[in-house]
Amino acid sequence: MARIGFAYMGTVPIVVKMLLEDLGHAVIVPEVPTAKTLSLGTKYAPEFACMPLKIVLGTYIEVLERGADTIVTTGGVGPCRAGQYAQIQEAILRELGYDFEMIVLEPPRCNILDFLGKIRRLNAARKSWLGVYRDIMKAWHKLKALDEVERLSHWVRPRELRRGTTTSVYRRCLEWLDRARTIEEIDAARERALSALRRVPIDESRDPLKVGIVGEIYVVVEPTANHNIEENLGHMGVQVERSIFMTGWTKENTVRDAEGMSHGEMIKRVASPYLPEMIGGHGQDSIGNTILYAKRGFDGVIQLAPFSCIPEIVARSILPRVSEDYDIPVLTFFLDEHSGEAGMITRLEAFVDLLERRRGARRGSLKAV
Amino acid sequence: MRKRVGIPLALGAYEYLPLWQTFFEELGAEVLVSQATTKEILDRGIEDTVSDACVPIKVFQGHVAELADKVDFLFIPRLVNVIDNKVFCPKFLGLPEMVKFTMSGLPQIIDVRVDLRQGRLRFLQQCHRISRLFTDKVGTFLRAMRRSLQQLRRFRRLLAQGLTFWEARRRLGRRQTRFTHRRSAEEAADHQLRIAVLGYPYAVYDPYINANLLKKVRRQEATVLTADMLSWRRLLPYSGGLRKDMFWTFSDRALRAGYYYLAKGLVDGVIHVTAFGCGPDSMVDKLLDLASLQHSTPYMTLMIDEHTGDAGVMTRVEAFCDMVRRRKEAG
Ligand code: SF4
Ligand code: SF4
């Protein structure tokens, strides 16, 4: 039995924890990354490493300090750096004198045997393959439930009557889902969470601004990295829609799924006049999703990217033209360890102002007609 | 009138200029290669590029601006894959678009997609499509292909003899290229220091952005060894025990070259030239640093940016070479 630690990202830890425990491990659940986590990572990571690498490195140090002897992470394939994170992080951690084992899960379609071998190594409880498969499907089920609940929170928050209600209800929802251990319990927890969110008192008449969020996966999904942008926008009365959800992302990257593919293909199709090449990371998606948001009548788009993130810089170069052609304002944040929440809020407020004025103008001219 | 093709002397051109230039010349085009980077070029590039981009991209856009109103076509290929399963940095993959959508008033862009994974035939077809912009004769096209590849091979042979990009280019310009045998690394005189200067060709060979680094190192009575002086075949076995190679062509090569020189004991010191804001480099830098440490070889990172100053680089190179020399003499 190993004491396993792993990286933090959005709601994923809740799921990974359950899966590893089911497989018979003690789990050192990572804490929510804090400024301290980031500064730990920043201290030991190369200066120009992207911020996700730094936060994750900081998290590893924290879990190793708390007694983890194994780290599990996913690989990924180029052409972007994420696939190389593990290797660099391992080298740095060894240099710091930590003794541990690192298990890097590559997407199964790269090397199915390697993937299965690692799963077997992780299977401390010596379950049958069927048992392991069931555990994985259960984890997937939970991840989907988490995504669904989070989506709903994005809808409720900008309409809430008392600021902060949604966030505190949502926190409780996460606890319920965390505690659910069987499919039945997960379903029950999901129902409970959804109805709790639906009971948050809202102003039905409100028609909030709609903003889509595109960008690099880690900073889009992990609130610590993006200064709680979704919550902040929600409190400004903006309904956000995130282009990346864990279930959406993992789906396309592990198994081919008819529905998932078609959305992915759609993104590629609309993006291709601006960027015909898959450049890795989420560069092409950022462009494609911006266009799709525009077509769906969103008021604006926000691009989130770690400082020096290559694919997003490419996207950033092209987005102004997209924004012009599709008449949709785009605001970009390059985030690093120096960017602060206050600065972001100021820029967000200005952006929201702009969107409101645009909407007012558009409606005004409609009335005039 | 002959059609004019502009080739920005930046990024991939430091690797393929002889090939590209010969190709278009053989097709009957007049080729205009931008001059070496200057302050003006960089400044223009900075104006047009998103501020978060790395310096080499800014330099590239500067060269594009320099050529834009002087030519009928701009050659901005999309380099995707040339070797193994390695791809180029995402900025290379999106280069034509980065240029197209941030700059205005550009001539037609020739943006062939170079991806050898799709097979040579496909590549040949694409080159043929380009050639039709200049000539309908298949014979001319095939000759252009042959000659340009020949020229690239000659260029590479010159590099392998220890010449820099600029020296090799000058030598190629002469009608008869003599392959005089220059000292290779193995034979460098004992009193000479041997310094590996690693990094992307467009950072190592652009004398403006690196403040004439190569000259400065040589002035310290040192032989400069770069990654381009080693053929891919030689580098192949030197992966440094990485579980997973670098995905990016140039990063991978810089790293392997480092492992090669260090493992063979061919260098007394390693200088890594890295560009401000370059993502991939942070990985390479860390790994090279660790490898040098393992071989107890002095290591220095030189980060170049818009403001790289002559004096600063001079001081650092001197100090580094002094240190390397003292260590060498001590034992
Ligand atoms: S997509 Fe961006 S953040 Fe992710 S690895 Fe690549 S450069 Fe880093
Ligand atoms: S490899 Fe680095 S320096 Fe070169 S284009 Fe990419 S980010 Fe810029």
Mean pLDDT of chain B: 87
Tell me roughly what share of residues is in helical segments of chain B: 40-55%
Q: Considering residues with a beta carbon less than 8 A from a beta carbon on another chain, report the largest interface and each chain's count.
A: A-B, 42 and 37 residues
| Overall spatial form of chain B | globular
Low-confidence region ranges of chain A: 249-260
Distance between the termini of chain A: 71 Å
Number of strands of chain B: 10
Q: Which structural class matches the secondary elements of chain B?
A: alpha/beta
Strand order of the largest sheet of chain A: 2-1-3-4
Whole-angstrom Rg of chain B: 20 Å
Q: Helicity range of the residues of chain A?
A: 55-70%
| Secondary structure tally, helices of chain B | 14
Account of the protein in words:
The complex is a heterodimer of chains A (369) and B (331). Mean pLDDT of chain A is 85; it is low at 249-260. Chain A contains 15 helices and 8 strands. Chain A has helices spanning 12-22, 35-44, 51-65, 82-95, 112-122, 129-156, 165-179, 183-198, 217-221, 229-235, 246-254, 258-271, 283-295, 310-325, 341-368; strands spanning 3-6, 26-27, 70-74, 101-105, 209-215, 238-242, 300-306, 330-335. By secondary structure, chain B is an alpha/beta fold. Chain B is built from 14 helices and 10 strands. In chain B, the strands form 3 sheets. In chain B, strands 2-1-3-5 form a 4-stranded parallel beta sheet, sandwiched between helices. In chain B, strands 8-7-9-10 form a 4-stranded parallel beta sheet, sandwiched between helices. In chain B, α1 (13-26) links the parallel β1 (4-7) and β2 (30-33). In chain B, α1 (13-26) packs antiparallel against α7, α2 (39-48) packs across α3 (55-68) and α12 runs parallel beside α13 (279-294). The model of chain B has no long low-confidence stretch (mean pLDDT 87). The interface between A and B is large, with 42 and 37 residues. The site of one iron/sulfur cluster has 11 residues of chain B, from α3 and α13.
